[in-house]
Design brief:
single chain; alpha/beta; four-stranded parallel sheet; two-stranded parallel ribbon; 8 helices
Length: 207
């Protein structure tokens, strides 16, 4: 796992990049951080979305930053500090807690996105089960973001390094969309955009 860095170091790494991107592209920029100080500075620099891989469990101030700015907030179910046996109920309960913290801080429910946290403190079998049962997260009635791109579970199943996991990633994306994913976080944008469009054409066609 990656080692944590200080807020100062994180700011040095991300703020110049966000400031430059904000002047060169028109697509929304998301800041991936669990530190409220970094989130606030990133929003001021041009980011317009916060992604918290700890679901407000490390720094609840992130919710206040999102509320004040009126921006979307991604809440992830992270089991790294608390491994569990029954993964799907644990993920749902973790997300419920995070959602409650966000709403209490003033985040609009329409700005909350949930992430099951594939790879975050889960065994291979739990990651596979969670992807297979992803539709159960629909009970929370919020958009689901799925991030499986090149992850270790694909490497463990296919015995391939990260840069050779595109086909495995495609399988997880297609199945994820079939099981309810609304947003996909990806590395190989061109190829996976085709997977998403094809999957959507099948799953979300007009009846």
């Amino acid at each position: 796992d990656c080692q944590p860095i200080s807020a100062d170091e994180e700011l040095k790494r991300v703020i110049p990049t966000i400031e430059r991107l904000a002047t060169e592209i028109t697509v929304p920029i998301s800041i991936d951080t669990y530190k409220s100080e970094v989130a606030r500075r990133a929003l001021a620099a041009g980011a317009c979305m916060i992604n918290d891989v700890w679901g407000l469990k490390r720094d609840a101030g992130l919710a206040e930053a999102a509320a004040e700015a009126g921006v979307p907030l991604v809440l992830t179910a992270n089991q790294r500090d608390n491994p569990v046996k029954n993964i799907v109920p644990a993920v749902i309960n973790s997300l419920k807690e995070s959602i409650g913290l966000a709403i209490k801080a003033g985040v609009s429910r329409q700005n909350i996105i949930i992430d099951p946290g594939i790879g975050f403190g889960k065994t291979l079998e739990q990651n596979l089960e969670l992807l297979d049962r992803l539709v159960e997260l629909k009970s929370l009635k919020l958009p689901i973001l799925l991030g499986t791109s090149r992850k270790s579970m694909i490497g463990l199943v296919l015995k391939l390094p990260a840069d050779e996991r595109i086909m495995g990633t495609a399988a997880t994306v297609a199945i994820g969309i079939k099981n309810g994913a609304d947003i996909i976080r990806i590395h190989d944008v061109g190829q996976m955009a085709q997977v998403c469009r094809m999957s959507d054409a099948i799953v979300r066609r007009k009846k």
